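Design review, sub-item: ligand-bound model
Attendees: FS, YL, KQ
YL presented the inputs for the NAP complex:
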Amino acid sequence: MPTVLIIGASRGIGFGLAQEYRAAGWRVIGTARQADDLDKLTAIGAKSLQLDVNDLNDCAGLGWLLDDEKIDVAILNAGVIGTRTEKLDTPSAEEFNLVMQTNVLAAMRILPIIAPMVQSAQGTLAVISSEMGSLSLRSGTHAWLYRASKAALNSVLLDIAHTYSGMTSIALHPGWVRTAMGTDQAPLSVEQSTAGIRATIAARTPRDNGKFFNYDGTPLSW
Ligand SMILES: NC(=O)c1ccc[n+]([C@@H]2O[C@H](COP(=O)([O-])OP(=O)(O)OC[C@H]3O[C@@H](n4cnc5c(N)ncnc54)[C@H](OP(=O)(O)O)[C@@H]3O)[C@@H](O)[C@H]2O)c1
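KQ shared the predicted structure:
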């Protein structure tokens, strides 16, 4: 039975991915911050691990908790959007730190820990990025701090892809999805997004290492 690790599986796309992979017969390891959310993961048959991606000790303990697991697919999903600015309002240092630490620093802590576990399974590592982080597809300035954080996350992913051979590392845009972050205005359901993400990951080969994809498998430019 293949194993998927989902970092940030408490709700929204992350919990949807846990349900999607369980329904497909996978062993699922999901992380969450709150006890209730850990119970929710256990209730769907997943192994749950407590992890706040902004807690240095939690991140450092992840390798020990996973104990040399072979991870076929790892998905770094946890993220925050911050204030939904329209204009170029300078964020406070506090807000900058929260968004950048959650979306970028956490990746720089967690990906070097889990990449060797994916490498030993010759598997696929995906970060849930956003089209809003693409420099070449930029068509607006909404939530510019979030955009900057996802552009930085894409850079981190490329460095992971350069460093770990024998596995496939990609960035994924999940679509605009009806979650707390995506709002109820979004056109896609969580189920549509997560089914697409699972299929897109399953279709990847080592030739796709270091590439960016939409949830439906369409390649995206950085
Ligand atoms: N929805 C969209 O339309 C859309 C579009 C593009 C990209 N994305 C990306 O997709 C990913 C999931 O978004 P979503 O729409 O499902 O958002 P969501 O419903 O707001 O869920 C965010 C997830 O991130 C977790 N998280 C945030 N900070 C964390 C921390 N410090 N430690 C651990 N977990 C933390 C949350 O856990 P808690 O429950 O503990 O807060 C939750 O599981 C994000 O990376 C987002 O940027 C979403």
